[in-house]
Write a structure and sequence with these properties.
The protein is an alpha/beta fold and about 350 residues long. Helix content is about 35%, strand content about 20%. Bound molecules: adenosine-5'-diphosphate (ADP) and the ligand N[C@@H](CCC(=O)OP(=O)(O)O)C(=O)O.
Length: about 350
């Protein structure tokens, strides 16, 4: 096996018993497989849900709570218990594991983004398995929509992983939710995430999981765009993580649509807030969208926002306001405003290397 970086995301539905509490046997099974991959020389990162499941009964709830504050409290208790379980299992293989709690928004701040990358790189370089979960106590949207799927895609993209494995309680994506539609057919390979496919993806199947296939598809969209293929497969099949890496697991495989997007461009494409808008004429729109050229000040017809040199701005076609992409601008707004629309040669407004076009 060639040495690879593998990100595995395991959902609540794959870590729990039918009453919603943590299943230690399932955790042991997953860690055994991760240890096998790590021992074979791969870099392995686990994104694990399950904190709420591990904590609610210890906190005196009879069943999995539904109120946000209750879930956050349960997760605060359960996260430690979950890590205790992973640590104990991985210690048997002398593999250190690390807890990292993140939220989607941590990727939007450039310094935090770099820090995540920095510590993950050290952990992987020193043979540890990072175990990531949402920072549930402070999560706002994530607890409602089950965004560990997205988080795992963000991590896989950042690390230029060879594969993102989304382990769940079903063996892949179907044309409809098989739990409610007996005619649903399994989809083996997805080369393009079309609106029809998104419409076929429904919400969570059990009372334990959140997000269902909807969040798995948006995760697959982010990862594949950054150049990382994705496999959705079942955690119930024996040894399925190892089989997924070998290419023999049954599941739905999403081929990478992009090419190994540079980490700096990923930040710009997926997370960077836009500090302003530029509107360009037809010639400039053609140069950007078709000829893969830089944006010159002469092609800009209007600017909006109080942006500064080095900020990320969005670019639109004049008239139709079609979104063309995002880039790092080389001027403060007042300076660009003075020279826009002028044909004298100037430094590019956005250099091609700092540009990411719309899909
Ligand atoms: N088109 C579909 N194909 C397969 N599963 C689907 C589909 N639409 C909805 N689902 C549901 O998604 C569930 C998996 O998501 P979820 O319960 O959130 O799991 P996890 O906890 O692993 O994230 C499946 O059990 C299934 O019921
Ligand atoms: N962060 C929460 C789970 C949220 C989540 O994404 O759940 P799932 O859809 O089961 O992966 C927890 O640890 O309980």
């Amino acid at each position: 096996m060639e040495k690879q970086t593998i990100v595995v995301k395991v959902g609540t539905s794959s870590l729990t018993l039918s009453d919603g509490t943590m299943d230690a046997e399932k955790i042991r099974n997953i860690t055994t497989q991760l240890a096998a991959l790590q021992t074979a020389g791969h870099h392995v990162i686990l994104v694990s849900s399950g904190a709420i499941a591990a904590g609610f009964s210890r906190l005196g709830f009879k069943k999995r709570p539904t109120k946000i504050a209750d879930k956050q409290a349960a997760a605060a208790v359960g996260q430690g218990l979950l890590m205790e379980e992973y640590t104990k299992n991985l210690m048997a293989y002398q593999i250190p594991c690390a807890q990292i709690l993140l939220n989607r928004s941590d990727f939007e701040d450039r310094r935090r983004y770099k820090n995540i990358f920095g510590s993950l790189s050290v952990l992987l370089g020193r043979g540890a398995i990072p175990i990531i979960n949402e920072n549930d106590t402070i999560a706002i949207e994530e607890l409602k929509v089950g965004d560990n799927d997205t988080l795992s895609a963000q991590v896989a993209a950042m690390l230029h992983a060879s594969l993102l494995i989304l382990l769940t309680d079903i063996d892949g994506l179907y044309t409809a939710n098989p739990k409610s539609d007996p005619n649903a057919r399994h989809i083996d390979v997805v080369n393009e995430i079309t609106p029809e496919l998104t419409a076929a993806a429904g919400g969570a199947g059990s009372g334990n999981g959140t997000g269902g296939m909807t969040t798995k598809l948006s995760a697959a969209s982010l990862a594949t765009r950054a150049g990382v293929p994705v496999l959705i497969c079942s955690s119930a099949e024996e040894n399925n993580i190892v089989r997924a890496v070998k290419g023999t697991a049954k599941g739905t495989y999403f081929t990478a649509s992009g090419h190994n997007m540079k980490t700096r461009l990923q930040w710009m494409a997926f997370y960077a807030p836009s500090a302003g808008n530029l509107y360009v004429d037809e010639g400039a729109a053609e140069a950007l969208a078709v000829q893969a050229k830089s944006l010159l000040p002469k092609g800009i017809v209007a600017v909006e926002g109080d942006f500064k040199k080095g900020d990320v701005v969005s670019v639109f076609r004049r008239g139709s306001h079609e979104y063309l992409g995002k880039g790092i601008v080389n001027y403060d707004r007042p300076d660009l405003q003075k020279i826009m629309n002028e044909s004298t040669s100037h430094t590019e407004a956005i250099n091609r290397d700092n540009w990411i076009g719309a899909e």
